[in-house]
Amino acid sequence: MIRDAVGDTGIAYRVDGPRDGPALVFSNSLGTDHRLWDRQMPAVEEQERFRVVQYEACGHGVSALLRGPVTIERLGRDLTALLDHLGIERAVVCGCSLGGVIALWLAVNRPERLTGVVLANTGAKIGTNESWDARIAAVRAGGTAAVRDQVVGRFLTPEFRARDPETTALIAGMIESTNSDGYIAACEALRATDLRADASRVRVPVLIVGSERDQSTPPELARELHASIDGSELVMIADAAHLSNVEQSSLFNAALVRFLVRSELHERN
User: Fold this and answer.
1) With 70 as the cut, is the pLDDT of residue 2 above it?
2) Which CATH number belongs to the domain containing residue 60 in this structure?
């Protein structure tokens, strides 16, 4: 990872692939970092043409924590600043959960910077004030370690956790190592965000990925997004919880690559 101060954001990012290739940006979920996308990188790199950016939202991984209130708008503007910094005019942004909400905000407010968005295990409105208040209180009292096991239990199915303890431990470690203030700030941003009235304005190509066993962003949120966004594609993955890109990476990657190829062709035409 490269630590780079983009404006006042202190965003951490990594870039792979040809400099002049079509850009793909991966945006992490709440409590994870750029390694969330490790299982996508081989499938994308196999295409041998995409310029891939993995970055970490403020307060996650080694990215700095923003001064002042953190909002989804501000996180979206951070990503726009990163695109500017890297000289990327337009990109496909693939975001999971928190990252998906950031991608949706960009699709609504900065569509000229996008060739498409992948909204993975996310929603226009995630959770309730009560659920976020409880999460925030727990982290304030005991740090991210206090919610680690509960969150891992929602992120990954019991079957996956049993058969792949190494990846489970990796995800648990990401959660526990996330800056508590950064985690709380992101929770507060999600608590305050409701893009349901805005989703119908999206006109860029959209792939929505949901999971039938997702407790954090239940499958009906993916279906609601699909119903709201004209022309969107919906892929539902049956046997996965919140991190479908981790649990069912082959299915996720196949859908992602198909979408990237279509977006590239659409951009050329």
Assistant:
1) no
2) 3.40.50.1820
Contact 53, 88 (CB under 8 A): yes
- Give the domain range for residue 212: 2-268
User: Domains in the chain: how many in total?
Assistant: 1
Length of the chain, in residues: 269
Residue type, 156: L
AA identity, residue 78: D
DSSP for 49-86, written as a single string: --EEEEEE-TTSTTPPPPSS---HHHHHHHHHHHHHHH
pTM: 0.95
The predicted-structure confidence for 200-249, as pLDDT tens digits, reads as follows 999 999 999 999 999 999 999 999 999 999 999 999 999 999 999 999 99
CB 51 within 8 A of CB 17: yes
Rounded Cα distance between 124 and 119, Å, is 10
- What are the two backbone dihedrals, phi and then psi, of residue 236, each rounded to the nearest 5 degrees? -105, 130
The CA angle 102-103-105, to the nearest 5 degrees, is 65
pLDDT of residue 266: 63
User: Strand 51-56 to strand 12-16: parallel, antiparallel, or no bridges (unpaired)?
Assistant: antiparallel
